[in-house]
């Protein structure tokens, strides 16, 4: 079973700014039982405090917070933006894909994070994600 | 050699980065020890080299050791190109 649930995916969403994108990515984690509302607020607070470091690669943001800020289980959500959004990152803006990650425990989620990194870091897979028509197609590309 | 990898939250991107560096170093015959940490805990830690995402690296000023800034944390080639020469140099010095 994939860790990416259907309800955790929104494709071609129109959003205004980085905070809205982080908020929606967090709400998807809440809806799928991966985190509490507190976790979403912590992700936004982290972005506002530390800056756009969550844009880890060109076009890709991975909002996250510490497990003790309301993570309930390991999982992730995925938003594909209709219009790319600036997160304020000097090199990796604008963001096209927002993938919020929740993890419990100190290192238990590292394996998941590495798998997500493997998928998103694979240019061929990234392109396929950017063009997938629906969740079914997406779940064949992201087999985590 | 001891490398400190730093991310914003201490969630895991720094650990992922450290593991990538260790694996890359091993492929080239170097054994690298290290620690993954968040920005708030990084200051004052003793190490030979600091590696961080470019956003975080910009906040690490006044360090006594080299600070490597990685733009694309998913790009193993960038990590290798920027970090391996320093590992090679530090190994010769040490």
Can you put this structure into words, describing what you see?
The complex is a heterodimer of chains A (144) and B (94). Chain A has one domain (9-136): Mannitol-specific EII, Chain A, CATH 3.40.930. Chain A has helices at 18-31, 37-50, 110-121, 123-131, 135-141, and strands spanning 9-13, 55-57, 60-61, 75-76, 78-85, 95-98, 101-102. In chain A, strand 2 and strand 3 (60-61) form a beta hairpin. Chain A is globular, with a radius of gyration of 14 Å. In chain A, helix 1 packs antiparallel against helix 2. Chain A has a five-stranded mixed beta sheet with strand order 1-5-6-3-2, with helices on one face. With 144 residues, chain A is an alpha/beta fold. With 94 residues, chain B is an alpha/beta fold. Chain B has one domain (2-89): Response regulator (Rossmann fold). A four-stranded parallel beta sheet of chain B has the order 2-1-3-4. In chain B, helix 1 packs across helix 4. The longest helix of chain B has 18 residues, at 76-93. Chain B starts with a strand and ends with a helix. Chain B: InterPro entries: PTS_EIIB-like_sf, PTS_EIIB_2, PTS_EIIB_2/3. Chain B: This is PTS lactose transporter subunit IIB. Chain B: Residues 1-91 form the PTS EIIB type-2 domain. Chain B: Pfam families: PTS_IIB.
Main sheet: strand order of chain B:
2-1-3-4
What is the C-alpha radius of gyration of chain A, as a whole number of Å? 14 Å
The CATH level-2 architecture of chain B is identified as: 3-Layer(aba) Sandwich
Helix content of chain A: 25-40%
Question: What class would the helix/strand composition of chain B place it in?
Answer: alpha/beta
Gyration radius from CA atoms of chain B, angstroms: 12 Å
| N-to-C series of helices and strands of chain B | EHEHEHEH
Give the overall shape of chain B.
Answer: globular
Give the class of chain A from helix and strand content and strand pairing.
Answer: alpha/beta
CATH class of chain A equals Alpha Beta
Low-confidence stretches of chain B: none
Distance between the termini of chain A: 8 Å
Most extensive chain contact? A-B, 30 and 21 residues
Number of domains of chain B: 1
Q: What amount of the residues of chain B lies in strands? A: 15-25%
Specify the biggest β-sheet of chain B. Answer: 4 strands, parallel
Count of distinct strands of chain A: 7
Taken in chain order, the helices and strands of chain A follow as EHHEEEEEEHHH
Indicate the overall shape of chain A: globular
Protein name (chain B): PTS lactose transporter subunit IIB
Domain PTS EIIB type-2 (chain B): 1-91
InterPro entries (chain B): PTS_EIIB-like_sf, PTS_EIIB_2, PTS_EIIB_2/3
Keywords (chain B): Transferase
């Amino acid at each position: 079973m994939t860790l990416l649930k259907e309800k955790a995916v929104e494709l071609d969403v129109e959003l205004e700014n980085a905070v809205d994108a982080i908020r929606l990515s967090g709400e998807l984690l809440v809806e799928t039982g991966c985190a509490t509302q507190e976790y979403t607020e912590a992700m936004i607070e982290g972005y506002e405090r530390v800056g756009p470091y969550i844009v880890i690669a060109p076009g890709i943001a991975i909002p996250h917070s510490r497990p003790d800020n309301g993570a309930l289980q390991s999982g992730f959500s995925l938003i594909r933006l209709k219009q790319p959004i600036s997160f304020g990152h000097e090199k990796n803006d604008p963001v096209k894909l927002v993938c919020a990650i929740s993890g419990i425990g100190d290192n238990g989620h590292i394996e998941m994070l590495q798998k997500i990194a493997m998928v998103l870091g694979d240019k061929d897979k990234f392109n396929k994600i950017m063009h997938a028509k629906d969740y079914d197609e997406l779940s064949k590309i992201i087999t985590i | 050699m001891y490398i400190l990898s730093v991310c914003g939250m201490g969630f895991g991107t720094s650990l992922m980065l450290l593991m990538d560096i260790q694996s890359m170093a091993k492929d080239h015959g170097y054994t690298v020890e290290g620690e993954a940490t968040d920005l708030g805990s990084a200051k004052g830690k003793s190490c030979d080299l600091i590696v961080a995402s470019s956003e975080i690296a910009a906040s690490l000023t006044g360090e006594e050791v080299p600070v490597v800034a990685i733009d694309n944390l998913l790009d193993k080639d960038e990590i290798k190109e920027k970090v391996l020469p320093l590992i090679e140099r530090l190994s010769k010095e040490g």
